[in-house]
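To the team - S-adenosylmethionine complex, inputs and output below.
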Amino acid sequence: MEESLGQKWKQPEFALASVSDLSLAPSSSASPGIARFNSDGLQIHHQSHQIPFNVDPRTVQLFKVSPVLSVCLVEGSDVGKKTLYSRGVTIQFRNDEESAAFHCVVQQWKKEVNAQEGNGRNGTITTSKSKFDDKIESSSSKMYFHYYGQLLHQQNMLQDYVRTGTYHAAVLENRTDFIGRVVVDVGAGSGILSLFAAQAGAKHVYAVEASEMAEYARKLIAGNPTLAQRITVIKGKVEDVELPEKADILISEPMGTLLVNERMLESYVIARDRFLVPAGKMFPAVGRIHMAPFTDEYLFIEIANKALFWQQQNYYGVDLTPLHGTAFQGYFSQPVVDAFDPRLLIAPSMFHVIDFTKIKEEELYEIDIPLRFIASVGTRVHGLACWFDVLFDGSTVQRWLTTAPGSPTTHWYQLRCVLSQPIYVMAGQEITGRLHLIAHNAQSYTIYLTLSAKMWGPGAEQGGILQTSSCKLDLKEPYYRMSQPQAYALAQDQQSQPLIQTQDIHIQSQDLDEPEIVQQPSLNSCAQIDSLMRNV
Ligand SMILES: C[S@@+](CC[C@H](N)C(=O)[O-])C[C@H]1O[C@@H](n2cnc3c(N)ncnc32)[C@H](O)[C@@H]1O
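Output:
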């Protein structure tokens, strides 16, 4: 079979026992014919017709009706979900071997034409339902890409100078990773990271962007002509597009609140598996979620007070109290996004590592983090504070982008999960627990948090748990708290030194350097307000 196919492909001509045009009466049109492949496509000659049947590889559909009989249809237009065919012929082969060879040649020919069309650095898009559509609700992704399709939201990210400045520094300080290399920008947005990669000497950058922002990216890139010839913008999801070549390096900004919100890390990992050469680089390569218990009496009272409305027994003559409990729990199910004073942390932080170069996409569906802290002060613990950083593991310079409290503020701020039942601890007491994140199809996570304070003093050796408090939160529905960091030291019972970064407990042994921060002006307040909406 292989040999006869090879021979046929070199001299692609098939004598046909009979051909009949489906648009004519069968008895009048059936006659012997020839199928010929040439540079213009496939022509099926019909002895009784002067005009051959011309077939375009992109639109032809070939169906086998019996071992020697096939139907060849040419697609016309689409009406609704139905495809209409503009013309068709039935082909009778002389034997089943020739029939099989013809089918193989047509398949091969279609494949080659598709590959050639993708070769012009344009990329192609598959039309089948993608992995993205399988796991994400369409209403969520529609809103998500609508949001990112607007220039004001891209501007907001560009105006986060800590973020964009760190990317710029990380790329340009590591030119050796980019010079002469093929780069894929995963979720290119305005195209800014593609432009940075081109500035650093990339041979070619494929900027893949699913939202309407792809058009603006084209415009922005075209307006920078010295870089534009080395950048191709491809509109589509990284899960769907085909690229004409493999990438030596991926660049992306896929981080959401708590690192994982938006579930774009999964797209980054899919892009790695689809496009990156073995041992290719990823910018960033690693992310860490940092966590520490905090005390914040003001925040707790603020949230609890929101539900006071429902304690009215005479609201226009109506008793609202039956809904107080539900409203109270509802407010505590919202993680709080704001910039807080690191002195609110009551124990050294710990972190959980996500290695983008190694993690499997499915491992991001459920993230389970055991917690263990030693309280530095005696106080009420109101919950768990979280932030993240990512590492640009360049060959020349390693650089961290951090969103830690006390560091220059980014548009991600920090995140706090507040317990509706605070727990009490003494200095030196162990706090254990679990942070369990479960992905949902609205591009976010349900957060399950449990914190426990172990027995202290007499009886501790029995290891009994004194108090446990749990909460369930939706990362998709945060409470954006628009306050500035406040001086809490006097008002609240805690130590005065920040407890972050340098005292991390390493729960996974990783040889990672500590954050190095680009000092840039922090966000202006308008950008801050707008940026909070990034958590779509
Ligand atoms: C956080 S923005 C970053 C934009 C730009 N890279 C930057 O740094 O300014 C993420 C971008 O990725 C795009 N995006 C998210 N998921 C995607 C996917 N699966 N395929 C293609 N683009 C995606 C979004 O539309 C958005 O523009």
